[in-house]
Amino acid sequence: MEPFTPRTQTGARKKNITLSQKEYSKITGTIARTRRQNSDYSPRNVSYDEPSFIAETSFVRAPLNSRVSSTSAAPKGKSRNDSLDHLPIDIQEALILEDLLYILMGIPGNYITFHPDYSPDEEDPLQGIRFVISPSLDSSLRDLVERILPLGTYYTAISSFIEQRSHLDFGLVNHALCASIRDMLKDYQTLLSQLEHSFNTSPSFSLQKLWFYVHPTIHTLSLIYSLITDLAFADDPSASLSASSSDTSDAEEEARNEALGIPSSKLKAVLSETPLTQSSSSIPVKGGEVLAIIYEKQQSMSGDPTASMLYGTLLRAAGKPYVAMLRGWVMTGRLVDPYEELLVKESKFINRGILEMDYTDEYWERRYTLRDGSTISSGNKGHAHKAGVPAPRSAGGRLPGGACVPPLLESWKHKILLAGKYLNVIRECGIEVGRDQEREEEEFDMDDERLYTFLESTYTHANHTLLQLLLRTGELIPRLRSLKRYFFLSQSFFLTHLLDLSHNELRKTAKSASIVKLQSLLELTLNTDVQGEDTMFREDVKVIMASSGLYEWLMKIIGTGGIEGNGKVPEQEPEEYKGKDKDDKKQMLAIDALSLDYHVKFPLSLVISRKTILRYQLIFRFLLHLKHVEQSLSTMWIEQKTTPWRKPVTKLGNASSRPPSSASRSRPSSSASRPPSRPSDAPAPSIPSTLSEQSEFEKWRLRVFLLRARMLSFVQQILSFTTFEVLEPNWRLLEQKLDRVRTVDELLRDHLDFLDTCLKECMLTSAKLLKAYSKLIVTCATFALYAAPYTKSANQAMMETETAEGQRRRWEYQVKFETNFDHWFKVFLDCVQFYASSENGSLLPLVVRLTSIKKT
């Protein structure tokens, strides 16, 4: 059976499970009195049932008990049968000197006893024991004795603090602090031994000499007592004043229940779905919070040389385990923090296995974080409201435990975090991090300037190593160039070829189209259009089908504040879109859902993550739609070069061939086979009512030619602006930044800023611009679908077989296309002009381009 280890207590007050000071004094006094009464004591007369002197447990704690007089055996240490009034002053001084030697060890004497209100069960041991002097003591001695008495209070409080904070729950920093204070108490106990020797051997030893020897020690112990008081009550007052029932519960019962399989209180709370929130009062004062309190005490008493030296010594001693954990993190990338004292926190549930399946940037952003919740973008201010960050202490507003960053490391915390993260990524790649033996043997203190030089050098080394791994071994720059080619269509021959080969497949619905067939066609086009370094990455490009339309999805994101509100794009499409087209009568075509995906391995997935791939996909679908509409309008232009469109009309129409007036036109339906309806606030263009020199059909043909040319010009201007005025210049700026990049975080930030800037300048982050643009581009795409019906109408008109109803419908469709295009073009141009003059100056070239196709 394994030995049972009782549960440690974490409360501010601990119930004393050993004998109290009064009980020790009573027992040892009785033993000493019995020995003095038996004057014929000899080893022969010792009975076997008498406890030996060595077996006295009190001798270890109070060596002075061996000379306790018989009068000290009175109940509660108050046996003062003889008053000091009738005794001479020199006798009083001798008796008080003997009592003071007890008091300085925390043991009550004959004439100096515990305070009447003192109770070991009710008093907090960290406040120390208070003593009172017999009122019969001469007043000339009383003042000096009262000056020495605080030493006993300080000693008992410090001893209780060391005993309490040596438990495992308080961490390595508290252990090191207690060890340092214990070493100081050894000097104090050595002083007491010397004072006792002088008291027993020197007739000239007096109260004045005792005061002379202990006076410097009073100041030292008062400084330590002030520190432990701040540490003991740094948490919430409610936590320090109330001892919870869990602290006094039977440890054996808890262990027995666990052995029998009975759930503990915490497990019961989980099973009953009771939330176990981590408040600041439940976290003991440990780790960085201890160092912060010591440093603040040192700074507040910097004018006192003794206090500054004492607190500096304690800060260096308590900071040794903290610095050791810090060095292990920044030198190897391994976080060894068993008591959660360091400023860096690890989320172990995020590992590389998750990264292989879904290469998000969670591994980089959430695997290792600062306990105070602060990030580089948010500055040095933590976010206590964030999940996983404990609430600040009610007293002082300091974050509890390891979440409190020591003030000496406040300006270095981000470099400490990044240095370890860089090395951790290198280790995850299977590259062993080299160790510098000289640095490992070198020791640093918290206030040592060499520590911060060491942190700077390790950060620079880790940063440079990972950056070279990404840029050289990972070939990041060629990767980004291939992304530019495939997603930004810098060399779009493969896309034109793909659209031609997959024309029939892309005319199907998104669910009916074969992704396998489209993937094979994509590989065929990429293999026939190989350009240099792109050959090694073309296998990473995959065809996917989006579950929602581009403009509907973007409008949804903008409506919820996704892009325009906080600059963030969700890493996947909203859930409400994934099954949306089940209820729609019209399903999305494959050409509208077509998109590309790009697969990379770790550690390149830190840079080319799902978040960045999504931005590339948004821009690709935007350009793809433009390319498709341009190709459709160009095909319409080629078709309109046939005989029905080019043959001159010499015969004039008669009255019956006159087009109907606008009043006789009915409103079209919203079906997909019909042109978009005319906006209610847009004036209807005039329809020729009289025919003089040209026929009605010639007028209609010219109107069709003009509208097609304007639409084609609009699409080409948008495409030209996007590629030459937005994507290419921003790409050149990114290349310049990558040449000067010094840190991995700069690399990540520059890459993300580049994509966000492209999205903004492509007008994909503004709801008004996106709405007007989507209406325009849909109008152009719908107009291109009417190429075949228009050609059929033209053939009928040329052969004079067209009916009056067919003529009316031909003009009706044309007028509605013109009306919609003119209306939304005006709205779009006004929006572009407004944003160009207020928010987005990069749209000014687009204003000039659009003005050239504006209808006069």
Automatic annotation (TrEMBL):
<dbReference type="Pfam" id="PF17681">
    <property type="entry name" value="GCP_N_terminal"/>
</dbReference>
<feature type="compositionally biased region" description="Low complexity">
    <location>
        <begin position="655"/>
        <end position="689"/>
    </location>
</feature>
<feature type="region of interest" description="Disordered">
    <location>
        <begin position="375"/>
        <end position="394"/>
    </location>
</feature>
<dbReference type="GO" id="GO:0051225">
    <property type="term" value="P:spindle assembly"/>
</dbReference>
<keyword id="KW-0493">Microtubule</keyword>
<dbReference type="GO" id="GO:0000922">
    <property type="term" value="C:spindle pole"/>
</dbReference>
<dbReference type="GO" id="GO:0000930">
    <property type="term" value="C:gamma-tubulin complex"/>
</dbReference>
<dbReference type="GO" id="GO:0043015">
    <property type="term" value="F:gamma-tubulin binding"/>
</dbReference>
<dbReference type="InterPro" id="IPR040457">
    <property type="entry name" value="GCP_C"/>
</dbReference>
<dbReference type="InterPro" id="IPR041470">
    <property type="entry name" value="GCP_N"/>
</dbReference>
<dbReference type="GO" id="GO:0051011">
    <property type="term" value="F:microtubule minus-end binding"/>
</dbReference>
<feature type="domain" description="Gamma tubulin complex component C-terminal">
    <location>
        <begin position="476"/>
        <end position="850"/>
    </location>
</feature>
<dbReference type="InterPro" id="IPR042241">
    <property type="entry name" value="GCP_C_sf"/>
</dbReference>
<dbReference type="GO" id="GO:0031122">
    <property type="term" value="P:cytoplasmic microtubule organization"/>
</dbReference>
<keyword id="KW-0963">Cytoplasm</keyword>
<dbReference type="Pfam" id="PF04130">
    <property type="entry name" value="GCP_C_terminal"/>
</dbReference>
<dbReference type="GO" id="GO:0000278">
    <property type="term" value="P:mitotic cell cycle"/>
</dbReference>
<dbReference type="GO" id="GO:0007020">
    <property type="term" value="P:microtubule nucleation"/>
</dbReference>
<feature type="region of interest" description="Disordered">
    <location>
        <begin position="648"/>
        <end position="690"/>
    </location>
</feature>
<dbReference type="GO" id="GO:0051321">
    <property type="term" value="P:meiotic cell cycle"/>
</dbReference>
<keyword id="KW-0206">Cytoskeleton</keyword>
<feature type="domain" description="Gamma tubulin complex component protein N-terminal">
    <location>
        <begin position="97"/>
        <end position="471"/>
    </location>
</feature>
<dbReference type="GO" id="GO:0005874">
    <property type="term" value="C:microtubule"/>
</dbReference>
<protein>
    <recommendedName>
        <fullName>Spindle pole body component</fullName>
    </recommendedName>
</protein>
<dbReference type="GO" id="GO:0044732">
    <property type="term" value="C:mitotic spindle pole body"/>
</dbReference>
<comment type="similarity">
    <text>Belongs to the TUBGCP family.</text>
</comment>
<dbReference type="InterPro" id="IPR007259">
    <property type="entry name" value="GCP"/>
</dbReference>
